[in-house]
Amino acid sequence: MIHRRQFLRSAGALALAMPATAAIFRSHASGTASNPSDSQLLPDPDRWLDLPSGFSYTRFSKTGETMSDGFRVPASHDGMGAFAIEGDPDRCILVRNHEINIGKEDDGPFGSNNSERVLSDIQIYDRSLSGRPLGGGTTSLLYNLKTRQLERSWLSLAGTERNCSGGTTPWGSWLTCEESRKIAGDGGQKDHGYVFEVPASAQSPVEAVPLKDMGRFKREAVAVDPATSIVYQTEDEARSLIYRFLPNQPGRLAAGGRLQALCLANQASADTRNWGDASRLSQGVPFAVRWIDMDDVTSPNGDLAERGHRAGAALFARGEGLAWAEDGGRGSVYFACTSGGPAHCGQIWKYTPSEFEGTDREREAPGQLVLYFESPARSTLDMCDNIVASPWGHLVICEDGENEQYVRGLKADGTLYPIARNAHPNNAEFAGACFAPDGRTLFVNVQNPGASYAISGPWESLYS
């Protein structure tokens, strides 16, 4: 039994405290983007993952298997976070999303046998119009890093829709995000597009409470500043905004707070997508940022981004992965815009918060936004999705493109290198990349056929 008091913090926060991070991250990925060499990857005879020489993987928690609590492993594995266990360096907890649409209830943890009878109504956020629990939510997994085996798994959130990505918190929970704007009556009985908090210590499905003050929109990911508890949020739309949530009480998001949207200080309603004939923002050029308050943040109209843009907020191209990194200063937020750039192949942005972030003095020293990387072609980087900062200071990027799917590393000089390729004929996207507390194991998901992977090997050979 894993007790609540054993959990310290997310593995990401632990891993990113390693000294290498500060030495390698820069203001932007300088130089010309290089095409990564596929020849660095060795073909997998089992046709699951191609990896570099010396690397190996464990494939576990596959869709359709029976979990320790008797529920079924849901389909469509997506975002995921890793958590350290106090006093047990050989094990960690993973909390994993499942991106299941309304109408796909058979893909969820209950299958078609109505086993939801063992859960109370407060543990199931929403049901279909016919009364079936929705299939989305999260599962939690106890993984042994020493034996490289899954020891236990269980359902930890039930009845939500399209749990895409999310993010870990410094206080040891997973924030899972619904990529949806559906309202009550549109297949389900409640509105969707919310964040839900799942403590890593939860041993059964938590009470499913939407954090409504954080807004309702087609969500992707979040990242938490450990110094302030401010939560940065992305939105997966072609015309999307970047949001931040200022909590009333640090570390207690359920106590409410204010939702704000990012603006360029000297360019109202800017378009950062670099599409078509619009004036383009150059890589490496810093832009001062201001933030505007949003109102009616749970509007059933699903028009938060359009209202924010009219009020001055900057447009982004499908905001997806978010990562907090201790990069030599007080830390920065990196986020992926999947279809950004002239080639529509993806952008990586870096936001460095103000030393007065979220306070009345913020205008004295505004936060800075910089285009960190922009892919010139699909052969370089094909639609960046989930991202995580590695212990050695590079970004690790999951692709969700039109061709073969890769996990890639991005160096500060703009060089990309392959870490893994999906060798399965389905060619499904990667998601959920995160590092174990010791920084030696990279966890990642493949959506279809749904499975989680633990990758280990001589990481130094990739970045030295």
What's the CATH class label?
A: Mainly Beta
As a whole number of angstroms, the C-alpha radius of gyration is 20 Å
Provide the β-strand percentage band: 35-45%
Give the N-to-C terminal Cα separation: 40 Å
Number of helices: 4
CATH architecture: 6 Propeller
Major sheet description: 9 strands, antiparallel
Counting helices, strands and paired strands, the structural category is mainly beta
How much is the average pLDDT?
92
CATH superfamily: TolB, C-terminal domain
Parts with pLDDT < 50 across at least 5 consecutive residues: 1-24
CATH topology: Neuraminidase
Care to count the β-strands?
Answer: 27
Share of residues in helices: under 10%
What order do the strands of the largest sheet run in, or round the barrel if closed?
12-13-14-15-16-20-19-18-17
Oligomer: single chain
